[in-house]
Specification:
By secondary structure, the protein is an alpha+beta fold. It is about 60% helix and about 10% strand. Strand 1 and strand 2 form a beta hairpin.
Length: about 210
């Protein structure tokens, strides 16, 4: 592999990014760059790179992955992106992902089920699915988890949220009432509920707060 340039970090004078000609790169401490005799516009032998992986990157990537999972549960894709953002080469990232998965520290099925159970009272089924897809959970796992874990009725959810937020739809001022109704619609739509369900529930809630 050919080193195109070495870029020092602004925030950390002790580290630099080693940029490769294929557009990838990795981060090392400057003393490590010196130790392995890495220079811009020169080749890194496969033997040297394998030594860097074994001695530096694989242990660090495993440790970083464990630390990130101690902070909070993450999907495999989320953890992979975090390691990429930290400057680990893809070879070390894959080994770290395999390592934590072997101990079930990452488990997308478990993550999806926990996410649904925790968030289903405040988000629609549609929104839960969208969120999990963004987190990199596969469709098969998402839909199976939804079938097993989601126990809410969308209209019941909407009514609970309307009552919890106490939208003032009983206000005698017409303009204020309309603004509050629009606010309620935006709030519920942002959580992925269907327009038809929102409309029906808002009308029910409005009659409820207005009273006889």
């Amino acid at each position: 592999m050919y080193v195109s340039e070495i870029i020092p970090f602004r925030r950390s004078k002790s580290r630099s990014k080693v940029c490769l000609d294929d557009g990838t790169g990795f981060v090392l401490y400057n003393k490590e760059i010196h130790r392995f005799e890495i220079e811009a516009e020169k080749e890194i032998s496969d033997e040297t790179f394998q030594e860097i992986l074994k001695e530096i990157y694989i242990p660090r990537a495993k440790k970083k992955a464990m630390h990130l999972l101690e902070e909070q549960d993450r999907t495999t894709v989320e953890l992979e992106q975090k390691l990429k953002d930290s400057g680990y080469p893809k070879e070390a990232i894959q080994i770290a992902l395999d390592y934590v998965a072997s101990y079930h520290y990452t488990d997308d099925d478990r993550y999806a089920r926990n996410y649904i159970r925790y968030h289903q009272t405040g988000k629609s089924k549609k929104r839960l699915i969208q969120d999990l897809k963004k987190k990199g959970v596969s469709d098969d796992l998402i839909y199976q988890a939804m079938e097993d874990e989601n126990e809410t009725d969308p209209k019941e959810q909407i009514m609970k949220l309307l009552r919890k937020k106490r939208f003032d739809l009983g206000n005698s001022d017409y303009e204020k009432k309309q603004k509050e109704k629009a606010k309620a619609f935006r709030f519920l739509a942002s959580r992925g509920f269907e327009v038809s369900d929102i409309t029906e529930c808002v009308h029910i809630y409005q009659r409820e707060v207005e009273g006889p």
